């Protein structure tokens, strides 16, 4: 379907001009129109654009608070993301994607689920799919950056370099569309002629993407160059998927009312803002922008609550200060080297202190096991706060043993243990995989041995299998003599012992050698298997 103006078409479900003006007031019903069958439709939305360093969690949450419908994360490069491990951070209540060097590369949380778009930099369909699958259940959509003209992006064939390789664009987008269950979008710049631009976007549309964002500048043009609104308009007419107009921050969009004007001027379905939002994210609020001093405080509170990296926080606050960066506050901010010092510059020491104490209490509660020990299921991982207490089991009996015997009886693969160690206290945490599901204790143990036993206990308790504790009813999983601690004796017992040893050996060889990291708290992979 080709349409006159994307705005008119959407007007049939929600009158043009209505969305922005009452954004905050009508959010639930409003959002109903923006979702199709639980998926983001990208129609009639106002979005926070992807911005390297700016689009981290605090900025995204703040933009949502002020009224943005959708928020893009900063561009993250596929190679780096593909090395990350997904970790549920129980202290911050976030999901973290953690690199082998323990850096949190991408952090997200429940509040933005359903509205956060993951933007990747990629030039490789397979790698793009690997990354998309890694984040699929934590984000609302995945986007491919095809507009970044910076050398670090284009030299790897990514960003704007893709614009001259439409076959590659098609291959990446098709792979993603067929490989993930969430919407796929891309963000482009315009090509030298209108015909080429339209041809490219029509080709993109055919891949099955849900929407396309168009930054109305050529890849050679800088941000100060005038925007080609006519190109965005022509593209919006030529395709039926929603077009998201972008590039108007400097001249066209200064207030919230301007957003609607920009949408009208481009005939696009939606609008995406980068710099206007970076300078003051309250531009998304119906009365916005609000005084930036208050906005910076709100930003900093999110940064503190979500343990944002101090340098990233500082960078974003400097962008908001703009020409006031040489003011006394600006100088204090520039001198700050930690989140505590940044908080002090804004008079938020108390908030910082209280937040630290709250997080510390939570960390300690998780550690000591005072958290309720009910299972928490997250995808294929089940976690419980369990500590392995040696004295609760007869001398020869361990939960690992019971789990192994049970899997043998059920004719399943032997349990597989993976170990991580964190640097702060050298604590260990194990994850056991049984029948394709993972089980882990949220509590850290002092030894690898105990960590594996704790993981086994979690699995046994969740599956309601006897674990061999003293006083537990006889299950027959492990022979009585062993339960009673009698190890001397018959050839039969010897052979049973050998079986255990060979199972042990087998488990050793099956323990994966890949590094595992978690929680952003400096953990190192530890692949040395423990004894049963
Ligand atoms: C600090 C900064 C970082 C950016 N990083 C990205 C990025 O990661 N991915 C991307 O597609 N565009 C990026 N851009 C481009 C913006 O998303 C947007 O296309 C451009 O700024 C024009 O929109 P505006 O006029 O609203 O600023 C960035 C822009 C800025 C100012």
UniProtKB/TrEMBL annotation:
Nucleotide-binding in keyword set: no
Record CDD domains: DSRM_DUS2L, DUS_like_FMN
Gene Ontology cellular-component terms listed: cytoplasm
InterPro entries tied to this protein: Aldolase_TIM (IPR013785), dsRBD_dom (IPR014720), DUS-like_FMN-bd (IPR035587), DUS2_DSRM (IPR044463), tRNA-DUS-like (IPR052582), tRNA_hU_synthase_CS (IPR018517)
GO terms assigned for molecular function: flavin adenine dinucleotide binding; tRNA binding; tRNA dihydrouridine synthase activity
Composition-biased stretches (Basic and acidic residues): 494-507, 521-532
Cofactor: FMN
Region Disordered, residue ranges: 473-532
Keywords, comma-separated and alphabetical: Flavoprotein, FMN, Oxidoreductase, RNA-binding, tRNA processing
Source species, domain of life: Eukaryota
Keyword Flavoprotein tagged: yes
SUPFAM superfamilies per record: dsRNA-binding domain-like (SSF54768), FMN-linked oxidoreductases (SSF51395)
Domain DRBM: 398-465
PANTHER family, per the entry: TRNA-DIHYDROURIDINE(20) SYNTHASE [NAD(P)+]-LIKE (PTHR45936)
Name this polypeptide is given: DRBM domain-containing protein
């Amino acid at each position: 379907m080709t349409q006159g103006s994307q705005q008119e078409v959407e007007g049939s479900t929600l009158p043009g001009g209505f969305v922005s003006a009452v954004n905050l007031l009508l959010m639930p019903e409003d959002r109903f129109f923006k979702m199709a069958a639980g998926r983001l439709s990208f129609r009639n939305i106002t979005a926070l654009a992807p911005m390297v360093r700016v689009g981290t969690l605090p900025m995204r949450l703040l933009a949502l608070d002020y009224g943005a419908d959708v928020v893009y994360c900063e561009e993250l490069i596929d190679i780096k993301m593909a090395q990350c491990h997904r970790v549920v951070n129980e202290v911050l209540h976030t999901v973290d994607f953690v690199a082998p060097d323990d850096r949190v590369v991408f952090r997200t949380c429940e509040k933005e689920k359903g509205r956060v778009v993951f933007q990747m930099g990629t030039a490789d369909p397979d790698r793009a799919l690997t990354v998309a699958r890694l984040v699929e259940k934590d984000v609302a959509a995945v986007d491919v950056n095809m507009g970044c003209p910076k050398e670090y992006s284009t030299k790897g064939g990514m960003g704007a370099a893709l614009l001259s390789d439409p076959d590659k664009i098609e291959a990446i987008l098709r792979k993603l569309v067929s490989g993930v269950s969430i919407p796929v979008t891309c963000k482009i710049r315009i090509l030298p002629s209108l015909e080429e631009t339209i041809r490219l976007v029509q080709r993109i549309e055919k891949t099955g993407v849900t929407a396309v964002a168009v930054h109305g500048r050529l890849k050679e043009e800088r941000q100060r160059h005038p925007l080609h609104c006519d190109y965005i308009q022509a593209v919006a007419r030529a395709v039926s998927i929603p077009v998201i107009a972008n590039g108007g921050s400097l001249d066209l969009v200064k207030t919230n009312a301007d957003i609607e004007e920009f949408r009208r001027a481009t005939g696009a379905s939606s609008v995406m803002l980068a710099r206007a939002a970076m300078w003051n994210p309250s531009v998304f609020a119906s009365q916005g922008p609000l005084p930036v001093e208050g906005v910076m405080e709100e930003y900093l509170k999110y940064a503190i609550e979500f343990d944002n990296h101090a340098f990233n926080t500082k960078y974003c606050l400097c962008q908001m200060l703009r020409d006031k960066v040489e003011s006394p506050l600006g100088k204090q901010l520039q001198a700050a080297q930690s989140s505590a010092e940044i908080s002090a510059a804004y008079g938020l020491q108390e908030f910082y202190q209280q937040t630290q104490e709250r997080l510390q209490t939570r960390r300690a509660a998780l550690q000591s096991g005072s958290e309720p020990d009910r299972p928490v299921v997250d995808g294929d991982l089940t976690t419980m706060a369990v500590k392995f207490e040696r004295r609760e089991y007869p001398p020869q009996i361990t939960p690992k043993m019971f789990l192994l015997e049970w899997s043998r009886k059920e004719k399943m693969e032997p349990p597989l243990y993976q170990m991580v160690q964190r640097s702060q206290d050298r604590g260990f945490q194990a994850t056991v995989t049984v029948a394709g599901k993972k089980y882990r204790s949220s509590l850290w143990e002092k030894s690898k041995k105990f960590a594996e036993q704790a993981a086994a206990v979690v699995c046994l308790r969740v599956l309601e299998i006897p674990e061999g504790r003293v006083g537990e009813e006889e299950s027959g999983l492990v022979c009585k003599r062993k339960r009673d601690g009698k190890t001397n004796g018959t050839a039969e017992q010897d052979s049973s012992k050998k079986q255990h040893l060979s199972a042990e050996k087998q488990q050793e060889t099956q323990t994966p050698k890949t590094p595992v990291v978690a929680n952003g708290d400096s953990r190192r992979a530890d692949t040395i298997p423990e004894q049963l």
